[in-house]
Amino acid sequence: xxxxxxxxxxxxxxxxxxxxxxxxxxxxxxxxxxxxxxxxxxxxxxxxxxxxxxxxxxxxxxxxxxxxxxxxxxxxxxxxxxxxxxxxxxxxxxxxxxxxxxxxxxxxxxxxxxxxxxxxxxxxxxxxxxxxxxxxxxxxxxxxxxxxxxxxxxxxxxxxxxxxxxxxxxxxxxxxxxxxxxxxxxxxxxxxxxxxxxxxxxxxxxxxxxxxxxx
Length: 215
Hints:
Blueprint: H1 14-31, E1 33-37, H2 38-60, H3 64-78, H4 81-91, E2 103-107, E3 119-124, H5 145-157, H6 160-176, H7 185-189, H8 193-214
Antiparallel strand pairs: 1-3, 2-3
Protein backbone atom coordinates (compact mmCIF):
# COMPACT_ATOMS: atom_id res chain seq x y z
CA UNK A 1 0.00 0.00 0.00
CA UNK A 2 1.15 3.56 -0.71
CA UNK A 3 0.10 5.20 2.50
CA UNK A 4 2.00 8.39 3.53
CA UNK A 5 4.08 8.46 0.36
CA UNK A 6 3.19 11.97 -0.78
CA UNK A 7 5.09 14.01 1.82
CA UNK A 8 7.25 17.02 0.77
CA UNK A 9 6.35 17.08 -2.91
CA UNK A 10 7.25 20.81 -3.13
CA UNK A 11 5.08 21.26 -6.22
CA UNK A 12 7.69 19.87 -8.63
CA UNK A 13 8.41 16.58 -10.35
CA UNK A 14 10.53 13.79 -8.87
CA UNK A 15 13.77 14.50 -10.75
CA UNK A 16 13.56 18.20 -9.93
CA UNK A 17 12.85 17.48 -6.27
CA UNK A 18 15.80 15.06 -5.88
CA UNK A 19 18.22 17.55 -7.47
CA UNK A 20 16.87 20.38 -5.31
CA UNK A 21 17.35 18.45 -2.08
CA UNK A 22 20.85 17.35 -3.15
CA UNK A 23 21.87 20.97 -3.81
CA UNK A 24 20.43 22.13 -0.48
CA UNK A 25 22.32 19.32 1.31
CA UNK A 26 25.63 20.36 -0.27
CA UNK A 27 25.05 24.01 0.67
CA UNK A 28 24.29 23.02 4.26
CA UNK A 29 27.47 20.92 4.49
CA UNK A 30 29.61 23.75 3.10
CA UNK A 31 28.15 26.61 5.17
CA UNK A 32 26.76 24.97 8.31
CA UNK A 33 23.43 26.86 8.05
CA UNK A 34 21.21 28.07 5.22
CA UNK A 35 18.06 30.17 4.84
CA UNK A 36 15.25 28.71 2.75
CA UNK A 37 11.48 28.21 2.83
CA UNK A 38 9.95 26.24 5.67
CA UNK A 39 8.67 23.51 3.33
CA UNK A 40 12.12 22.99 1.77
CA UNK A 41 13.79 22.93 5.19
CA UNK A 42 11.40 20.23 6.39
CA UNK A 43 12.03 18.22 3.20
CA UNK A 44 15.80 18.61 3.59
CA UNK A 45 16.03 17.40 7.19
CA UNK A 46 15.47 13.61 6.65
CA UNK A 47 17.73 13.53 3.58
CA UNK A 48 20.74 15.21 5.23
CA UNK A 49 20.37 13.18 8.41
CA UNK A 50 20.47 9.94 6.42
CA UNK A 51 23.70 11.12 4.77
CA UNK A 52 25.18 11.86 8.21
CA UNK A 53 24.19 8.35 9.33
CA UNK A 54 26.10 6.89 6.36
CA UNK A 55 29.16 8.92 7.36
CA UNK A 56 28.91 7.64 10.96
CA UNK A 57 28.70 4.05 9.78
CA UNK A 58 31.78 4.50 7.60
CA UNK A 59 33.64 6.14 10.50
CA UNK A 60 32.76 3.30 12.90
CA UNK A 61 33.62 0.38 10.59
CA UNK A 62 37.13 -0.98 10.15
CA UNK A 63 36.47 -2.68 6.81
CA UNK A 64 37.79 -0.61 3.90
CA UNK A 65 35.25 -2.11 1.50
CA UNK A 66 32.33 -1.00 3.68
CA UNK A 67 33.79 2.52 3.99
CA UNK A 68 33.96 2.81 0.21
CA UNK A 69 30.42 1.42 -0.08
CA UNK A 70 28.96 3.98 2.36
CA UNK A 71 30.84 6.79 0.64
CA UNK A 72 29.45 5.78 -2.76
CA UNK A 73 25.93 5.69 -1.36
CA UNK A 74 26.39 9.24 -0.05
CA UNK A 75 27.75 10.41 -3.42
CA UNK A 76 24.64 8.97 -5.12
CA UNK A 77 22.46 10.90 -2.67
CA UNK A 78 24.34 14.25 -2.60
CA UNK A 79 25.85 14.24 -6.12
CA UNK A 80 28.99 16.09 -4.99
CA UNK A 81 32.31 14.44 -4.17
CA UNK A 82 33.71 17.51 -2.41
CA UNK A 83 30.71 17.75 -0.06
CA UNK A 84 30.89 14.02 0.69
CA UNK A 85 34.61 14.26 1.40
CA UNK A 86 34.07 17.10 3.85
CA UNK A 87 31.22 15.25 5.55
CA UNK A 88 33.09 11.94 5.88
CA UNK A 89 36.52 13.39 6.79
CA UNK A 90 35.79 16.52 8.87
CA UNK A 91 32.19 16.75 10.13
CA UNK A 92 31.52 13.15 11.08
CA UNK A 93 33.52 13.38 14.33
CA UNK A 94 31.20 16.10 15.65
CA UNK A 95 28.15 13.81 15.35
CA UNK A 96 29.76 10.63 16.69
CA UNK A 97 28.31 11.15 20.18
CA UNK A 98 24.76 12.02 19.01
CA UNK A 99 22.07 9.50 18.05
CA UNK A 100 19.87 11.35 15.56
CA UNK A 101 18.62 14.92 15.57
CA UNK A 102 21.61 16.40 13.77
CA UNK A 103 19.80 19.52 12.48
CA UNK A 104 17.45 22.17 13.86
CA UNK A 105 14.97 24.48 12.11
CA UNK A 106 14.16 28.06 13.12
CA UNK A 107 10.96 29.52 11.70
CA UNK A 108 11.37 33.20 10.77
CA UNK A 109 8.68 35.77 11.53
CA UNK A 110 8.93 37.78 8.30
CA UNK A 111 7.64 35.94 5.19
CA UNK A 112 9.24 36.20 1.76
CA UNK A 113 8.32 39.21 -0.35
CA UNK A 114 6.32 38.39 -3.47
CA UNK A 115 4.57 35.14 -2.54
CA UNK A 116 4.54 35.50 1.29
CA UNK A 117 6.12 32.05 1.75
CA UNK A 118 7.13 31.09 5.28
CA UNK A 119 10.91 31.33 5.69
CA UNK A 120 13.16 29.30 7.97
CA UNK A 121 16.80 28.67 8.86
CA UNK A 122 18.15 25.13 9.03
CA UNK A 123 21.52 24.43 10.64
CA UNK A 124 23.58 21.69 12.23
CA UNK A 125 23.15 21.20 15.96
CA UNK A 126 26.91 20.89 16.44
CA UNK A 127 28.90 23.97 15.50
CA UNK A 128 31.34 23.55 12.63
CA UNK A 129 34.86 24.42 13.74
CA UNK A 130 36.68 26.46 11.14
CA UNK A 131 40.40 25.89 10.85
CA UNK A 132 42.47 28.99 11.52
CA UNK A 133 45.42 29.65 9.21
CA UNK A 134 48.75 29.14 10.92
CA UNK A 135 50.97 32.18 11.24
CA UNK A 136 54.50 31.81 9.98
CA UNK A 137 57.17 32.68 12.50
CA UNK A 138 60.05 34.81 11.33
CA UNK A 139 63.45 33.13 11.65
CA UNK A 140 65.70 34.72 14.26
CA UNK A 141 68.95 36.17 12.88
CA UNK A 142 72.18 35.15 14.62
CA UNK A 143 74.30 38.18 15.35
CA UNK A 144 77.96 38.10 14.33
CA UNK A 145 80.84 39.40 16.45
CA UNK A 146 81.40 42.71 14.56
CA UNK A 147 77.68 43.51 14.88
CA UNK A 148 77.82 42.87 18.62
CA UNK A 149 80.84 45.19 18.94
CA UNK A 150 79.03 47.96 17.05
CA UNK A 151 76.01 47.61 19.36
CA UNK A 152 78.23 47.84 22.45
CA UNK A 153 79.95 50.98 21.13
CA UNK A 154 76.59 52.61 20.33
CA UNK A 155 75.35 51.80 23.84
CA UNK A 156 78.44 53.39 25.37
CA UNK A 157 77.93 56.53 23.29
CA UNK A 158 74.31 56.80 24.34
CA UNK A 159 75.01 56.05 28.02
CA UNK A 160 74.09 58.75 30.64
CA UNK A 161 77.70 59.06 31.84
CA UNK A 162 78.93 60.30 28.46
CA UNK A 163 76.06 62.79 28.22
CA UNK A 164 76.95 64.22 31.67
CA UNK A 165 80.59 64.57 30.64
CA UNK A 166 79.58 66.45 27.50
CA UNK A 167 77.46 68.88 29.58
CA UNK A 168 80.35 69.52 32.02
CA UNK A 169 82.81 70.23 29.18
CA UNK A 170 80.36 72.69 27.60
CA UNK A 171 80.03 74.56 30.93
CA UNK A 172 83.82 74.76 31.35
CA UNK A 173 84.23 76.22 27.84
CA UNK A 174 81.65 78.91 28.57
CA UNK A 175 83.47 79.90 31.77
CA UNK A 176 86.96 80.01 30.23
CA UNK A 177 86.09 81.99 27.08
CA UNK A 178 86.45 85.79 27.64
CA UNK A 179 83.39 87.85 27.05
CA UNK A 180 83.94 90.69 24.59
CA UNK A 181 81.40 93.48 24.65
CA UNK A 182 80.87 95.18 21.32
CA UNK A 183 80.18 98.90 21.40
CA UNK A 184 76.63 99.68 20.61
CA UNK A 185 75.45 102.28 18.13
CA UNK A 186 73.87 104.38 20.89
CA UNK A 187 77.19 104.62 22.74
CA UNK A 188 78.95 105.81 19.59
CA UNK A 189 76.47 108.64 19.06
CA UNK A 190 76.89 110.07 22.58
CA UNK A 191 79.16 113.17 22.57
CA UNK A 192 81.68 113.48 25.35
CA UNK A 193 82.47 116.97 26.92
CA UNK A 194 86.00 117.03 25.45
CA UNK A 195 84.72 116.61 21.92
CA UNK A 196 82.23 119.49 22.47
CA UNK A 197 85.05 121.89 23.50
CA UNK A 198 87.07 120.97 20.43
CA UNK A 199 84.09 121.71 18.18
CA UNK A 200 83.59 125.10 19.81
CA UNK A 201 87.26 126.02 19.26
CA UNK A 202 87.01 125.00 15.62
CA UNK A 203 83.90 127.19 15.13
CA UNK A 204 85.65 130.19 16.76
CA UNK A 205 88.72 129.80 14.57
CA UNK A 206 86.56 129.57 11.44
CA UNK A 207 84.80 132.83 12.40
CA UNK A 208 88.14 134.60 12.93
CA UNK A 209 89.45 133.50 9.54
CA UNK A 210 86.25 134.67 7.88
CA UNK A 211 86.56 138.17 9.51
CA UNK A 212 90.16 138.50 8.41
CA UNK A 213 89.17 137.75 4.81
CA UNK A 214 86.48 140.40 4.94
CA UNK A 215 88.95 143.01 6.26
